[in-house]
Amino acid sequence: MAEYIFGVDIGGTSIKFGLFLTDGTVLDRWEVNTRLENNGTEIIPDVAKSIQNKMYEKKLKKEEIAGVGVGVPGPVTENGEVIVAVNLHWGHTKVAKDLEKLLNIPVKAGNDANVAALGEMWKGGGRGTKNLIMVTLGTGVGGGIIVDGKIVAGAHGAGGEIGHASVEPDFPIACNCGNHGCLEQFTSATGIVRIAKEEIAKAENTKTVLIENEISAKSIFDAYKEGDEVSKKIVNQFARYLGKALAIFACVIDPEIFVIGGGVSKAGQPLLRAVEQYYRKFAFKSCKETPLVQAKLGNDAGIYGAAKLALDAAR
Amino acid sequence: MAEYIFGVDIGGTSIKFGLFLTDGTVLDRWEVNTRLENNGTEIIPDVAKSIQNKMYEKKLKKEEIAGVGVGVPGPVTENGEVIVAVNLHWGHTKVAKDLEKLLNIPVKAGNDANVAALGEMWKGGGRGTKNLIMVTLGTGVGGGIIVDGKIVAGAHGAGGEIGHASVEPDFPIACNCGNHGCLEQFTSATGIVRIAKEEIAKAENTKTVLIENEISAKSIFDAYKEGDEVSKKIVNQFARYLGKALAIFACVIDPEIFVIGGGVSKAGQPLLRAVEQYYRKFAFKSCKETPLVQAKLGNDAGIYGAAKLALDAAR
């Protein structure tokens, strides 16, 4: 009987693997370097080899594997084709089909941020729910939407691209995407540092522990926890942008929970409480009490979600 | 074999009925008054009687009916219970269960705006799609979200409550819901008239065909089509608010299509083109070409959607 699943998270630097039981117990985790040479054509064969080696090592037969799930940093269609994945040097690539051919095991593929959201639903901060919005606050801002236990990939693979919701279209600085005033310009690690520099320049007479050339999301939240006045202003701006945006998103799908992950979210409860305060203020009355929780799986969300994707397809 | 379905749309003034074949062909349409007396307790028995009379008239047996779908003006849970429906004088009401008991036929219930979106997907402006956002521009602004062919009801029945997305939280006037700067304050029939009054007051020296005491959404769009300068400013404001909000919503679920309905949408193509221009400007690159179309079923969207709801449950 098929009782094992592989979850694979392909990133621009490394490929993470997990071997799971179908109940979500992780038996093994490992990673290999991502080889970008030859337009990334080595990647899929490398994934296949790594899985086959693990099967040999663990004495697993093909019939015992329910499936392989793969997360990819780019838009992925319903049938597992990637349109483009810049970080992997990929153009149009039939990930699921190609890997399936090499392994002769069913493969499912999804966008990495969406797959991470699925992982957090299965075994992380959103455990026990079937409808959630995950927000990943890192260098950029990513997201994933889960409705009725399934990823909302979207008609153009842009489901959950909440970092590019243009919340301040008159904002003078352009986002990497070309638009102006995207949520990630205010709530990513980079965005917070930009806000911080502005606030420090404005607050010349206010004492602050922040030192202009050493500012990071971490130093700002550390200072905020110590009660630093300038940091309070910075965090309030950040929290207002995010809380307001989440309140708007809630009017679309009314999730059971918001799961906040990514490097910035390591600031933990003080950050969540600041965002929550604005969320509760701006949310539609029926949704005011929707919980905001911290993601739990960290960098493993991808392999968990990929495994769950394969598991759901096998059922 | 079950080949007929009833679609029912319960409103505060009248209850609309449709008798359909399972392929969506409408065989009969009729309506009865909504009796609000006795806290609306007459409504469900009235619906049952009207359906039974029609079955008698058309000589339909219970076994030939695949199901009955019902749209209700209020939040409806997954199992067909209404939390509250002010316009029907209802508190907590087990619509599906109660009607099922009277008819001995399977009943499904949903929120009326969500059900209308399902109707537009099945046989209206969104025909051929499975993922859409419907916006209903009337006295207020309602909406419905369809993902993978199914209504997104939301954890608190607030899925698709896009009229209450707080897009301008600093707006001084409060919305009926208690928040400030909800989308419906700018893009409903009432909202457009308010914007119009402000623009007319500002534009004392600009000639306009608009007459202050006779302003309606219709007169504004009529004047806009004739090239009236003040009306252009009004419609631009309206279109910018709606286009910007749709661009944000698209980052959440990335629909295949937007369907615009309700009284205000009768202004037709010029309105759609004005909104589209702002939508294209603010949307994330992958979603810029998502079509905006007019709803097609008008007041019948509810009975079509209710029938589809029952049909999907029967399959």
UniProtKB/TrEMBL annotation, chains A, B:
Enzyme Commission code(s) on record: 2.7.1.2
UniProt cross-references to InterPro entries, sorted A to Z: ATPase_NBD, ROK, ROK_cs, ROK_glcA
Gene3D superfamilies per record: 3.30.420.40
Molecular-function GO term, any one: glucokinase activity
Signal sequence annotation: none
Family named by the database record: Belongs to the ROK (NagC/XylR) family.
Name of the featured protein: Glucokinase
Species of origin: Blautia liquoris
